[in-house]
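Question thread 4412

I'm putting together a teaching handout and wanted feedback from people who do this every day. The idea is simple: show students a protein as raw sequence, then show them the structure tokens that encode its fold, then repeat with a second protein so they can compare. Below is the first pair exactly as I plan to print it.
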Amino acid sequence: MDAEELLEKYAAGERKFHSVHLGGVELKGADLKEIDLYNSNLNGADLSETNLVRAKLNHVLLARACLQDADLQLIEGSSINLSWADLNSTWLMGASLNSANLKNASIYQANLSRINLNSANLTDANLVETDLTQANLTSASFQNANLQKAKFRGANLEKCNLSGTNLAEADLVGVFLGQVNLRNANLQGANLERPSLENANLMNANLDGANLKRADLTGANIYGATFKNADLTGAIMPDGEVYQTSTDLEFGKPETPLTKEPKEIYIMTRKVIRTDKAPAPVGPYNQAILASGQMLFVAGQIAIDPRLGDVVYTEDVVKQTEQVMRNIEAILTEAGATFADVVKTGVFLADMNDFAAVNGVYAKYFSEDTAPARACVEVSRLPKNVLVEIDCIAVIGG
């Protein structure tokens, strides 16, 4: 089908165009309100300035299509593919785009207020100055997207992946960001007044100059994050304490406010590290605890293969040790560490005669000149009757 045939049938009252091939067609400025293009191919089509209000675009292919200045209000677009599409200045207010693919899309200065982008993929998308007010962005991925000066007031960003995003000067007032991944994100100068950042991952994020008044950072991971010139007045910090703007008061004298630039922040934090690439705990303990954002305490690891959930190589101490070291490596990686960060290990053997064999495997992971301190002891029995158990302590960024 070509553009002319489509427009003729539409003008005659037809609205349902399922599974049609319209790749590369030019429909610039066309009035296609309430059209149903289910499962159709419009890859590379020119739909700029087109009226698609209340259109049904479920499972439609629009990769590299041009929708600049199009009116897409209240469209249905479940699983729509808009990767690399041009949506600059597009009107998408109230649209429903569940699980849409918008990877690398250009959505500059678009109106996406009240849009539903639940579980959508916006990786590497350009959303500079885009209006996402009251949008549903639950579980959406914005990894490495450019969201500079974007508006998010009233938006739901629960469980979003915003790692590596540029959110400089973005408006996030009162936004719920609980459990959101903001690792390595740029939030410089962002307005984050009164947001919920409970248990959010802010590792290595840039919050310089940000407004964090009355922000709730309870349980957040702020290891490596910077807060230079940030306003943390009344903010709840990761340890649950309210940030204080005055200290060292003289007895009998009124409080003297500190300079507006807050002092360097050092907050005691405690984060549980979990990965399915190492054995799950089988008792009241965790795989590791990241304390104060720097010290990592890894629980004793034995030769359980996490894929099987059971001990492997029951009679081979060398292979058991290799499995133990793989388990430790998986936990270190999950916490952002390596074996080079380990400062102390504990080795527990069922038989000290196995020391040389265990040490031969151990030495592959630690060179003599930088090896951590170590204790090695023989014990009467180990969990699940394994032959070796190893725990460790690492210091990250110390």
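The second pair follows. I'd like the answer to focus on this one:
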Amino acid sequence: MKLGTLTAALIVISISASWAVASEPIQPIPAASVKNKAMVELGKKLFFDTRLSKSGFISCNSCHNLSLGGTDNLQTSIGDHWQQGPINAPTVLNSSMNIKQFWDGRAKDLKEQAGGPIANPGEMAFTHELAVEVLRSIPQYRAEFKQVFGSDDVKIGMVTDAIAAFEETLVTPDSRFDKWLKGDKKALSNTELAGYKLFKEAGCVACHNGTAVGGGSFQKMGLHADYKTASKAQGRIAVTKQESDRMNFKVPVLRNVELTYPYFHDGAVWTLEEAVETMGRLQVGRNFSKDEIGNIVAFLKTLTGKQPDFKLPILPPSTDKTPRPKPFQ
């Protein structure tokens, strides 16, 4: 084969592979692109720092544990003074791909979301003012803020900017499904491929699509039958005040879904099999057979990607001026 012919053939193969990926309702996750390494490193420390809570015991990582798929594997999270959270903690992994943040979408982006739990009396139970006071009292933190922002006069907006920058790096590329999308036809078994085919044919991809396999819209929980739950959460109506948004929740991402149990906004379901059966009945009007459920679950497990892997940050020590934690007050 002549060089020109070979080059043309390779171009055709490349175009064909790109078209095949583009024609699927799910797209591969690209690797994280770090724009500001110093800001990401600062955000990483803040994500793990329990001193941003009243008790000195709770951090962002408490509810979004990066060793557990970016969540806490609890029905609802545990807040200050052992308070029970009102809703299941969604994974922080790939959260930058969400249309909005929180189940009801009350935060427009990760920066806005990052400030919420710190000042929430049921979560970290601090105030933004006290969080900033803690950071200002620690010389090493002030030096890092000056390096990143050009000023050591710490502001809450700087804090949330840094946390958001770190969270943007928490993507999980290179799942077996992504490898299949990119042309590795041996990456999936026949059972997993059958599950994906059914996932598409049944209409699951109407909501669970795109790079994150969800997170791009708000949908009613219970389209074909009411969802019965003891949870008081009512969904998007809490933000819009529109009755039509009652029980409308952000569609959860399905990336790494085998790691992020229990499922749904109320955390009521602990197994993927039950989750698939329930979603079949309520959302697409299908009573999946046991074999069909098994196939879909097999497919869903191929969405587990490469987990964030980094050296645990060593946090700077407090000083005599650092406000003391109050875990029992």
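Top answer:
Good format. For the second protein you could add a caption like this: The longest helix spans residues 3-22. The two ends are 79 Å apart (CA to CA).
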